[in-house]
Amino acid sequence: MDPALSRAVPAAACQGAGVPELPEVEALAGFLRERVVGRVVAGVELASITVLKTFDPPVTALAGLEVRAADRHGKWLDLDVDGLHLVWHLSRAGWLRWYDVVPERPARPGKGPIALRVRLDDGSGFDLTEAGTRKRLAVHVVRDPAEIPQVASLGPDPLDPSFDRDALERLLAGSRQQVKGLLRDQHLLAGVGNAYSDEVLHAARLSPFAVAGRLTEGQVDRLDAALHGVLEAAVADARGRPAAELKDAKRAGMRVHGRTGETCGVCGDVVREVSFADRSLQYCPTCQTGGKELADRRMSRLLR
């Protein structure tokens, strides 16, 4: 196996890359399908009790069971372990650290970024890690992923073949929500977050504050093409990459998100930013807002 596949991901690498979204989570699911399906769980070590959101079945019930599948639900990863499901959401600072050979020393509670370690019968395995002090990594052990309210309430997956232009138009119809917020709402559309919504709206040449239900037919056409085009390209780029490379690849592929002050590669204007309490969005005025700069949410009303 390629040595790069066993590289540990430094805690710092999890910071500043944002929440893993559909393309990265799909790539992680593929990464796990190749490496864990058919393997038997030798043991699970819980290093952070706060990440475990369920107690029945216990996490120890996974030991001795075979991994049957690795799937994705929006931004959630799901390992089917002989009928039990280990399901997790990485949130902003979580990540997966793969080992060809798991360290012999057990994961120690309260020491470092490791939250949970899974050992497999061939000596390989992985850690779920979380950097920083805001602990939002969520791990569930359930008999059915639908037992998790956040999974059960997910909207359609934008890459599902059934989610076509008509489905998008129905989603937008009558909505008073800003299109940026609608794209990020996991109850309406599963898997798109802050970064890829910026990228989709840039490709669609739409203001992030345009009202979803007021988009014209042509704007809906552009949004549909951008949503599928951006996500499909990102999935293709992420496919087959080692887990350790996915966050850097995501950052490198962004055209506007995280590129405040840089030059738009489409028109040459400067990428601008609107800041909120816990996040920011990036956009190109020339491409998206008729050359007008979005100063804040109040100013955005002028640009709808």
UniProtKB/TrEMBL annotation:
One of its GO terms (biological process) is base-excision repair. PROSITE patterns: FPG_CAT, ZF_FPG_1, ZF_FPG_2. Residues 255-289 form the FPG-type domain. Its cofactor is Zn(2+). The keyword DNA damage applies. It catalyses: 2'-deoxyribonucleotide-(2'-deoxyribose 5'-phosphate)-2'-deoxyribonucleotide-DNA = a 3'-end 2'-deoxyribonucleotide-(2,3-dehydro-2,3-deoxyribose 5'-phosphate)-DNA + a 5'-end 5'-phospho-2'-deoxyribonucleoside-DNA + H(+); Hydrolysis of DNA containing ring-opened 7-methylguanine residues, releasing 2,6-diamino-4-hydroxy-5-(N-methyl)formamidopyrimidine. Residues 20-137 form the Formamidopyrimidine-DNA glycosylase catalytic domain. Gene3D superfamilies: 1.10.8.50, MutM-like, N-terminal (3.20.190.10). Keywords: DNA damage, DNA repair, DNA-binding, Glycosidase, Hydrolase, Lyase, Metal-binding, Multifunctional enzyme, Zinc, Zinc-finger. Pfam families: Fapy_DNA_glyco, H2TH, zf-FPG_IleRS. SMART domains: Fapy_DNA_glyco, H2TH. The keyword Lyase applies. One of its GO terms (molecular function) is class I DNA-(apurinic or apyrimidinic site) endonuclease activity. Belongs to the FPG family. This is Formamidopyrimidine-DNA glycosylase. It comes from Pseudokineococcus lusitanus.
